[in-house]
Amino acid sequence: MTLTFDQSTYRNLLAEVAPVAIETEEEYERVSKIALVSSDDI
Q1: Helix axes 7-16, 25-39, angle to 10 degrees
Q2: What is the DSSP letter of 40?
Q3: Which one, out of 1, 21, 31, 36, has a CA that is 20 to 30 A from the CA of 14?
């Protein structure tokens, strides 16, 4: 199975959430919520 994604959606996600190490529980919660919402677009 090949996973595909919308490049525009992915670009917008990266603009909101720069790929950095998650160091706190608060950061994890924030990024998790964004990832869940963004997964609806996939």
Answers
A1: 160
A2: T
A3: 1
Q: Is this model's pTM higher than 0.85 or not?
A: no
2: in domain: no
In the numeric block, which tokens belong to residue 37? 């919402």
Range of the domain at 20: 7-39
Question: Quick one: tokens of 35?
Answer: 């990832």
* Structural domain contains residue 11: yes
17 assigned to some structural domain? yes
| Total domains in the fold of the chain | 1
Q: In this predicted model, what pLDDT tens digit does every residue of 2-40 receive, in sequence order?
A: 767 788 988 888 877 777 888 999 989 988 887 776 565
Per-residue model confidence (pLDDT) at position 34: 77
